[in-house]
Amino acid sequence: MEQPKLPLAPVAQARAAERATSLADHLDRRHRGQTALELIDASVRHLFRNRIAMVSSFGADSSVLLHLVAQVDPSTPVIFIDTEQLFEETLAYRDDLVARLGLTDVRSHRPRPERLKRLDPENFLWQSDPDLCCRIRKVEPLADALRDFPAWVSGRKRFQNAVRAALPAFEADGPRIKVNPLADWTAKDIEAYRIEHGLPEHPLVKFGYLSVGCAPCTSRVKPGEDPRAGRWRGREKTECGIHLPGLMTTESHGSGI
Ligand code: SF4
C-alpha cells in the first residue's frame, strides 16, 4: 500500500534536523574534554567559519562568554534580542561590554512592529500569555536573526537548572548546531573568570538579580534558590522558548498566530 506523503517542507526539515543531530553527536564526541576557548576557536575559526553567530542577552553572567569569543575573533557576529521590555541597566551593560571587549559586529534585533501592534498593543501580554509574549518578542526575532547562520553559540550552563542538567557542548537545534562552550562551567568558575579578567558585573546582580531577563518577568533570587528562580516567578514557565525545539522552523509569518 502506498504510504501517505508528507508535504515537502516538513520532510526537508526533518532530514535537515536528522543531519544536524548526527553532526552534533559527532562533534560532541570529537571535541569532548576541550576547554571553552578551544571549543569556541574550533567553531568560529574552523567548523563554521563565517557562518556562526553568538547569541547574548547581556545578562548576569554574559560577560565571560563574550570575553572568550572576543579573544578568538572580536568581529564574530553577536546577536542581541531587544524585547523592548528590558531593564535600562541591561542596555547600558551591553554598551559597556561592547566597548570594553572591542566587539565590532553586535546586532540588536527587535520584535516586528506589526506583531506588537496586533498582539501586544498595550505591552501587557507578558501578564496574560507569557508564552506568546516570548514568542513574538524573543523567539521570532531570533529566528529571523539566525536565518543565515547554520550554527550559533549559546551561554547556557548545566548548573543553571534541572532542565539544563544534561546539556552537551554541541547539540542539534532543528537544522542548526548550537554550541554550548560553558556547559560544564559552575557558578564559581564563571565568577572566578570574571574577576580574574576584570570584567564588570551586571549592575543588577548586587541587588539579588542572579539571572536577568525582561523587567516584568524578573525578580530577585533568595539565598539558596536556583539562580533562575527569579524568572517568571510563580509560573510553570522556566524558558523563554529560544532554547526549546522548533526555534529554527519558526517564522513570524508562518507561525499561524
Ligand atoms: S520574558 Fe516576559 S516580557 Fe520578556 S518576552 Fe517573555 S513574557 Fe514577554
From TrEMBL:
- Where does the source fall among the domains of life? Bacteria
Active-site residues, Swiss-Prot/TrEMBL:
240
Q: Which positions are annotated as binding [4Fe-4S] cluster? A: 133-134, 214, 217
Cofactor(s) this protein requires:
[4Fe-4S] cluster
Q: Where in the cell is it found?
A: Cytoplasm
Pathway per its UniProt entry is:
Sulfur metabolism; hydrogen sulfide biosynthesis; sulfite from sulfate
- Where does the Phosphoadenosine phosphosulphate reductase domain start and stop, copy by copy? 52-219
Chief site of localization: cytoplasm
Q: Which GO terms describe its biological process?
A: hydrogen sulfide biosynthetic process; sulfate assimilation, phosphoadenylyl sulfate reduction by phosphoadenylyl-sulfate reductase (thioredoxin)
Pfam family, any one: PAPS_reduct
**Recorded catalytic activity of this chain's protein:** [thioredoxin]-disulfide + sulfite + AMP + 2 H(+) = adenosine 5'-phosphosulfate + [thioredoxin]-dithiol
Alphabetically list the UniProt keywords: Cytoplasm, Iron, Iron-sulfur, Metal-binding, Oxidoreductase
Q: Which HAMAP family match?
A: CysH
Family, per entry: Belongs to the PAPS reductase family. CysH subfamily.
* Protein name, as recorded: Adenosine 5'-phosphosulfate reductase
The lineage, from the top, is: Bacteria, Pseudomonadati, Pseudomonadota, Alphaproteobacteria, Hyphomicrobiales
